[in-house]
Write a structure and sequence with these properties.
The structure holds 3 protein chains of 3 kinds. By secondary structure, chain B is an alpha/beta fold. Chain B contains 18 helices and 19 strands. In chain B, strands 1-7-19-18-16-14-12 form a 7-stranded mixed beta sheet, covered by helices on one side. A 4-stranded mixed beta sheet of chain B has the order 3-4-2-13. A two-stranded antiparallel ribbon of chain B has the order 5-6. Chain C is an alpha/beta fold. Chain C has 2 domains: 83 residues, Methyltransferase, Methionine Synthase (B12-binding Domains), Chain A, domain 1 (Orthogonal Bundle), CATH 1.10.1240; 119 residues, 3-Layer(aba) Sandwich (Rossmann fold). Classes of the chains: A alpha/beta, B alpha/beta, C alpha/beta.
Chain lengths: 497, 502, 214
């Protein structure tokens, strides 16, 4: 089972308990007074039956505070998720930290740094790398949005899930757009793994029908869910951090209420992808430090609710390259998320925003994860680590510690040696052709791709089940018009369907 | 006065109370049982007079607990430090956080990334950059480089200090070596500034006479003394973080006791400058995460002693301005800031103690801006919670972009870096695919062509500095510490028409 | 029996066991085992550790731990060599030290271990060594090579001073001089008139062999 890293010290707090109370009360006020718009009649009925104030015309639901607090209490503080290979089962909980990837629509050319559509092989290679990296505990949706060759839009992620099932035994995520999770959840079931249901909010305070349906699927199949919140503050949320946290929480809670009404004790986690608005160009300001302030407060509130949190802002940066800026924009939010109590950090593989990703970036990010993991373990101050007798024995100069048994035993526990970092001295570095971290990561990628095998591969039966579900999806979207005749012809021809 | 940054939340703590007590208890035990070796007759006598047990046969001083605690109490918990320009004065201690440039012995070529010796002009220009950067609050010793072309090593410190005073009105530091602190003190007095100078232990548990002699001079001059162990854990201190904290703190405390015995109330600051041993190369393992743990624990213990701390020393292990340098520098400085370091070293440094570049300093200044923004924290009140606004905007199609509240608040909540690439991909292509290094180079050119030190030296101050430099040159020549070859090179340099600037 | 004690001694070194190494040396001398063979056995063991380090399998603490174990046994064996008047074959004699004003010992310790492993007779003078002390040791041990280390920019010029001092004392031609340490570059080493420089510990061992033509 993957527990990831254990945080051995109390989570970092930015605000006082009183401030957290204020934010909680503000959230209850918005839910009660303004409520949310839910474009899903089934859900409106569930809310109505639970004594919410529901207006079926305007689709507006207002929540009594008692119901909200009761549902928050019903959600488990920690839970397991089952993977195809048991060693990748997950435990989400209050003191352990897991990592996964942040996807990009495209790959990037490492020479020009320009984005382009990946090939199927490149898509598979990224999955393989993520499967091989020990600290990637599960895989998000994508990791690229489809691959080249003419797959219809609506089939891209379904084909992607099939690739992940074939090339990884780690748990993954089923996005809900256009009902594709109906098919991907079935795929997961057919090969004996759980998959995260993934309902998204739409800011401010709105829920579309396919996203809400994900909750019904999660209840039907008894799946864990990861609820995604992606407001942009200054745009779809207030520009002030406290206000943005109130809005985010008011948007996440209705899903939790719905899940707990459908299935008391349902496994839920909340993912925070709230970003600042770049006021210069209207894009989200990826890598902005204010995002971390939001996330740290968010974590503090949800720790109080006892519901695991996912920090999505660790991954995307505003740099287009794997460079210094990309490095600090990843390390800072990752550190802050980890120490403030996130259960899951979404760090690996993304470069610019949600646009680009690359396996080399994932391999480099693995060293950030390792460093953070070591930091979370904290300091051992037991008698042996204190080494008081040794210190008194070694005494002043010319005493030293290099040859001591204590040093041989302890140094590796205290340090963390990154796998793709340049740790040479200048003369050694010159001798080694001035190799830098990107080149070390390339070596590591080559090694992974030439040696890593998915463990275990799909059985023939599982493989054919997946094929069947793919066919079923293709027919479904052909029938309802989401695959046009033109798209279908290309798809059929290029993929020999 | 420079405000720096205020940390508006409780610092990150990674030790339990019991762990802090264990480390503190261990430190007292080592000070009492094994003690510290001081290669200084003068210091040994002072310690003996004040109740320490002194063994003159091996220069060993053993410290009674009462004296240690009394001296820690005597050291002020926060204090004012005076720069050449009073606008750059600071208050160190409590929840204030200031940042300082981090030097390297050489410059680097931004194309080949290889180290090379800087020229006199580059040295002065780099100080101008540090003077211009808003988040550089301190321009410390060896900054920007240990020296420059044609200057004999022994003159590097006085020449460097003179250059810093000439090109910056910020708080300046200078270190000791071969008696140069005598000239440093004279120079600082001539320009009306205070200095901070270190007293470095020779770990394990030893102080050599040069460090002690310099400490006497600095304390008697009424300046600030920075105490540092500088151990490498696994080499000159135990390989465990906890053990290394014990030896390091024992060394620092011994120095503080000396300072408080020389002159009670002396302003001291405790520096964490310890690194794990790179067990392959034998050098310190720069950029290792253990440094962050060590620093966080160090801060927690020194908060208990109520003495300001210095550290967050952000040396990367990378030789380039790249992804690795970024994650190393950001976590080292940030964990330092979160756990309460009062003065943090970051701007400009590349690999280990060996490389500095002003373009790196410019990029780091953004990193510091981000850290500073985080330290300020957030406000929770009626206006920031914006409940009326949220209820008013409601669900989609409501939005916040056009609201007065957004115009007022977004800029307070966000920090906009000066040299980061924040474009969208289409903009980026159109702009020529600039990255942060390109933007930083542009800012470098801009600073060099426009920035002037806000308070130039007076003619009198300038001539005093030149006189003191002459004294130093004579002193070292007489002592035989400048060879005739060195002197010939140096002389040519001193006759440059644009001396002292190029 | 003899074989056992050689193996035990090697094992003690490879397991970094200082006490066992010393007591095995005493035991072996007591049993009248040829002391030169004991030294050879230890050299084999330390070479294995050195090779492991070179391959990246062992680390600095292992190297130094083994060297410490060997140093615990060496004086006992050397005393016996002196007593019976035997002569020890070695690649050459090297005097090693960190220069005056510099107290860094790690790099120097690495070099000493690897040079010993290679078969040199190494005299480690320690840290903070003045020119006079280097001179004295070169005379006393009839050294073939002087190896100096300086980590800091401020102390690097001290190496030049030592070389000048040896010139003045007419000893410069007698020894080959190699320099190293964090502050030293190829250019600097040529500048001060050293015979060789290498940035890495294993490279320095090769250099030492080159300098004495072996």
């Amino acid at each position: 089972m993957s527990r990831g890293f254990i945080r051995n010290f109390p989570a970092f707090k930015l605000l006082s308990d009183e401030n957290i109370d204020q934010i909680h009360r503000g959230t209850l006020d918005v839910l009660q007074k303004t409520g949310v718009t839910v474009y899903n009649d089934k859900a409106l009925k569930v809310f109505k039956n639970a004594d919410c104030d529901v207006d079926f015309d305007s689709k507006r639901v207002k929540f009594p505070p008692g119901l909200v607090e009761e549902c928050l209490r019903k959600a488990p503080t920690s839970f397991r998720v089952k993977a195809r290979n048991q060693k990748h089962d997950l435990l989400l909980g209050p003191n352990n930290v897991l990592f996964f990837n942040f996807p990009g629509t495209d790959t990037v050319d490492l020479n020009t740094w320009e984005p382009r559509t990946p090939t199927e092989q490149e898509h598979i290679d990224l999955i393989k790398v993520l499967d091989a990296l020990e600290n990637v505990h599960f895989l998000n949706a994508y990791p690229y949005f489809g691959f080249s060759g003419g797959i219809p839009e609506v089939m891209k992620e379904i084909e992607g899930v099939a690739l992940r099932m074939r090339n990884s035994t780690k748990v993954t995520v089923a996005i809900a757009n256009n009902d594709i999770d109906r098919f991907t959840i079935k795929m997961a079931k057919s090969i004996g793994t759980e998959i995260f249901a993934n309902p998204n909010t739409s800011s401010p305070l709105t829920y579309y029908t396919d996203q809400v349906n994900a909750c019904f699927l999660a209840a039907e199949y008894d799946l864990p869910s990861m609820i995604w919140e992606g407001a942009t503050y200054g745009g779809t949320a207030p520009a002030s951090t406290s206000g943005a946290v109130i809005l985010s929480n008011a948007e996440l809670i209705p899903y939790i209420v719905l899940m707990q009404l459908l299935k008391p004790g349902a496994r839920v986690s909340v993912a925070n992808l709230v970003l600042a608005q770049n006021m210069g160009n209207g894009a989200p300001a990826f890598g902005e430090i204010g995002v971390s302030l939001h996330n740290v407060v968010f974590n503090q509130v949800w720790r109080r609710y006892g519901i695991p949190t996912v920090s999505s802002s660790c991954g995307p940066t505003s740099s287009k390259r794997i460079d210094f800026q990309n490095g600090y924009q990843k390390m800072m939010p990752t550190l802050l998320s980890a120490i403030s109590g996130s259960s899951v950090l979404q760090l690996y593989s993304s470069i610019y925003g949600e646009i680009t990703a690359h396996p080399i970036q994932a391999i480099l990010d693995d060293d950030i994860a390792g460093m953070i993991g070591r930091f979370l373990e904290g300091v051992d101050a037991g008698d042996e680590a204190l080494a008081i007798d040794l210190i008194n024995e070694v005494g002043p100069i010319p005493g030293h510690y290099l040859g001591k048994a204590h040093t041989r035993k302890w140094w590796k526990k205290e340090q963390f040696a990154p796998k793709s970092a340049d740790r040479l001295t200048y003369p050694e570095w010159l001798k080694a052709d001035k190799k830098s971290c990107i080149e070390y990561a390339m070596d590591r990628m080559e090694k992974i791709l030439s040696t890593h095998k998915v463990d275990p591969p799909l059985t023939e039966k599982q493989e054919s089940d997946i094929e069947d579900i793919l066919s079923e999806a293709r027919s479904y979207y052909r029938e309802n018009g989401l695959i046009s005749d033109e798209e279908w012809d290309v798809y059929k021809k290029n993929f020999k369907i | 006065m420079l405000k720096g940054f205020t940390r508006n939340f409780k610092p990150l703590e990674i030790l339990t109370e019991e762990q802090v007590e264990s480390i503190h208890g261990g430190t007292l035990d080592v000070l009492r049982r094994t003690g510290i070796r001081f290669e200084s007759e003068k210091a040994l006598k002072l310690f003996e007079k004040n109740g320490c047990q002194v063994d003159y046969s091996n220069n060993r001083v053993r410290f009674p607990e009462g004296l240690v605690e009394e001296c820690l109490r005597r050291a002020p918990s926060s204090y004012h430090v005076k720069a050449r320009n009073p606008e750059n004065d600071m208050i160190w201690g409590g929840n204030t956080t200031y940042f300082q440039a981090l030097s390297g012995s050489q410059s680097i070529d931004l194309e080949t990334w290889e180290p090379r010796t800087p020229t006199r002009k580059e040295f002065h220009d780099a100080i101008t950059v540090l003077d211009a950067l808003g988040n550089v609050h301190i321009v410390p010793w060896y900054t920007p480089w240990f020296g420059f072309k044609n200057v004999p090593p022994v003159m590097a410190m006085p020449e460097g200090l003179a250059a810093r005073f000439r090109n910056s009105s910020k708080f300046i530091c200078a270190n000791y070596s071969m008696d140069c602190e005598v000239f440093n003190i004279e120079m600082a007095r001539a320009v009306g500034a205070e200095l901070r100078t270190s007293m470095a232990a020779a770990p394990p548990l030893t102080f050599y006479s040069d460090a002690v002699e310099s400490a006497y001079r600095i304390v008697n001059a009424g300046f600030i003394l920075l105490l540092v162990s500088g151990s490498v854990y696994g080499g000159t201190s135990p390989s465990t973080i906890a053990g290394s904290l014990i030896t390091g703190n024992a060394e620092i405390i011994a120095g503080i006791v000396l300072a408080q015995l020389i002159k009670p109330g002396t302003r001291v600051i405790a520096q964490d400058f310890s690194f794990p041993q790179n067990m392959r190369a034998g050098s310190p393992a720069f950029g290792d995460i253990a440094i962050s743990l060590h620093q966080a624990a160090f801060n927690q213990i020194w908060r208990k002693y109520d003495i300001p701390t210095d550290g967050g020393v952000s040396y990367p292990s990378s030789k380039k301005i790249d992804y690795q340098a970024a994650y190393e520098k950001s976590i080292l400085s940030f964990t330092g800031a979160l756990s309460g370091t009062n003065t943090i070293w970051i701007q400009g440094a590349l690999y280990g103690e060996l490389a500095f570049h002003p373009v790196m300093a410019i990029i780091d200044d953004d990193l510091v801006g981000m850290i500073g923004r985080f330290l300020e924290g957030i406000e929770v009140n009626e206006e920031t919670m914006a409940l009326d606004l949220i209820n008013d905007v409601g669900p989609i199609p409501g939005h916040y972009l056009s609201k007065a509240h957004t115009r007022k608040w977004w800029n307070k909540e966000q920090f906009v870096p000066k040299v980061a690439d924040r474009s969208t991909p289409p903009e980026w292509l159109k702009l020529g695919k600039n990255d942060c290094i390109d933007y930083a180079k542009k800012r470098y050119d801009e600073i060099i062509s426009t920035h002037k030190v806000d308070l130039p030296l007076t003619d009198k101050q300038e001539s005093d500095i030149e006189r003191i430099l002459k004294e130093a040159r004579e002193y070292y020549k007489k002592k035989g510490l400048i060879s005739s070859e060195e002197w010939d090179e140096y002389k040519k340099d001193l006759k440059s028409p644009n001396y002292p600037y190029e | 029996m003899n074989n056992d004690i050689f193996e035990d001694l090697k094992k003690a070194i490879k397991e970094y066991d200082t006490e066992a190494a010393a007591s095995l040396a005493k035991k072996a001398i007591g049993e009248k085992i040829e002391p030169l063979k004991l030294l050879d056995a230890m050299t084999v063991a330390i070479r294995e550790v050195g090779d492991g380090f070179g391959r990246g399998e062992l680390w600095l603490p292992d190297l130094v731990g083994a060297a410490d174990a060997m140093s615990a046994a060496t004086p006992i064996i050397e005393e016996e060599i002196k007593r019976i008047g035997a002569k020890r074959e070695s690649l050459g004699t090297i005097v090693v030290g960190t220069v005056f004003g510099d107290i860094h010992s790690i790099g120097k310790t690495m070099i000493c271990t690897l040079l010993t492993a290679e078969g040199f007779k190494v005299h480690d003078l320690g840290i903070n060594i003045k020119a006079e002390q280097f001179l004295e040791a070169i005379k006393k041990y009839n050294a073939d090579i002087l190896a100096m280390s300086a980590l800091m920019t401020m102390t690097a010029p001290e190496q030049r001073k030592v070389i000048k001092f040896l010139e003045n004392e007419n000893l410069r031609e007698k020894v080959k001089i190699m320099v190293g340490g964090g502050a030293i570059t190829e250019e600097f080493s040529k500048n001060i008139g050293a015979d060789g420089y290498d940035p890495t510990a294993p490279g320095a061992v090769k250099l030492a062999r080159q300098l004495i033509g072996k």
